[in-house]
Amino acid sequence: MIRIALAALIIISACGRQSAGPDPIPEINAEDVVSGYSFLTAETQALQDDDFANPGFLWVDRGERLFESTQGVSQSCSSCHSDGLVGAAATFPKIDPASGALINLEGRINMCRKDHQQADQLPYTSDELLSLTSYTAHQSRGMPINVDTIGQAAKHLSAGEDYFFTRRGQFNLSCAQCHNQSWGQKLRGDTISQGHGNGFPAYRFEWQSMGSLHQRLRDCDTGIRAEPLPYGDQTYVDVELYLAARAAGLKLESPAVRR
Ligand code: HEC
Ligand code: HEC
After folding, report:
1. Does 220 participate in catalysis according to the annotation?
2. Which of 94, 199, 202, 233 is the most exposed place for a label (fewest CB within 10 A)?
3. Chosen domain end from 102, 120, 138
4. Are both 42 and 167 inside the same structural domain?
5. Cα–Cα distance between 112 and 189 in angstroms, integer?
6. Does residue 85 have its Cβ closer than 6 Å to ligand 2?
7. pLDDT score for 19
8. Ligand lying closest to the C-alpha of residue 206
């Protein structure tokens, strides 16, 4: 059953190979856009919905403690952000006006550590960065994704879109073939969702941990036997922007729970 589904995808992939140029895979109709939450079992949905049982809250709570604690030049995040950062996560990735670079939430947090706290940058996969990101993202839970895609962001949007529609890896599959064309179908015991990032950072049973969106993207690239990009890679940040734009209006869910 599982193998049949993967074989079907590879056949889709092989059929398209004769045609030159980008795959004619349509985007998801705006009225059909749904969160990965819709594809979860009732038990997993219930776990995500219960703030006391949802394991992601361990990272949210740890993030809150870090946010309040003194780092670097004896300043806490909260000494500057005394009203918290409600709504901020829904607007990332965004252009940093000073450098003109597109940065995601992890990048912004590390920028504050470096520029405002004179503290060390946190490694992308560190529990501290994951906790601070989870705490910040959680403050936007229930708010619609609202990213800027014009001006300097436009070229990043199109780079992210290119990555999404480009076939890669030994299976020669694009993100779009699974998440635009095959959502709702089964693959290795998962139901393929539309591939939105609105639940991240998310707790995954497979990780036994909270993880970033980049960790999820690396898993998807690895799944098709493609070389995953490094954590924090600019192309993954561009993909993040494209994912946010194609999910515009979907509500943030972090800490989501996923299989
Ligand atoms: C000394 C003051 C200061 C400290 C300390 C500080 N920040 Fe900031 N932060 C800022 C300022 C100012 C901005 C607005 C952008 C800018 O000018 O750099 C900002 C922007 C942000 C944003 C983006 C908000 C948005 O709506 O785009 C996030 C997220 C953020 N900070 C998180 C943090 C976290 C997490 C910490 C602790 C690790 C922290 N900041 C520490 C001053 C600070
Ligand atoms: C072979 C099919 C396949 C390909 C190709 C693929 N994915 Fe996935 N992806 C999955 C499966 C299966 C899951 C886990 C179930 C789900 O949420 O869809 C997943 C999950 C995700 C999620 C998390 C969704 C959620 O709500 O938790 C995102 C985001 C995502 N993929 C983005 C991408 C991107 C971007 C690419 C291209 C770089 C990609 N995927 C390529 C199969 C694929």
Report:
1. yes
2. 233
3. 138
4. yes
5. 41
6. no
7. 42
8. 2
Pairing of strands 256-258, 202-204: parallel
> Do 240 and 197 contact (CB within 8 A), yes or no?
yes
Query: Which ligand has the minimum distance to the alpha carbon of residue 166?
Result: 2
Q: Closest by alpha carbon to 92, among 257, 212, 245? A: 245
β-sheet bridge partners, residue 257: 203
Q: What whole-number distance in Å separates Cα of residue 226 and Cα of residue 56?
A: 29
Host domain of residue 164: 2-15+23-51+145-258
Could you give the C-alpha distances from 44 to 40, 58, 70, 182, 199, in angstroms and in order?
A: 6, 17, 36, 22, 13
pLDDT tens per residue across span 226-255: 999 999 999 999 999 999 999 999 999 999
Q: Has this prediction a pTM greater than 0.90?
A: yes
- Give the Å distance between the CA of 179 and the centre of ligand 2: 6
Mean pLDDT of 36-60: 98
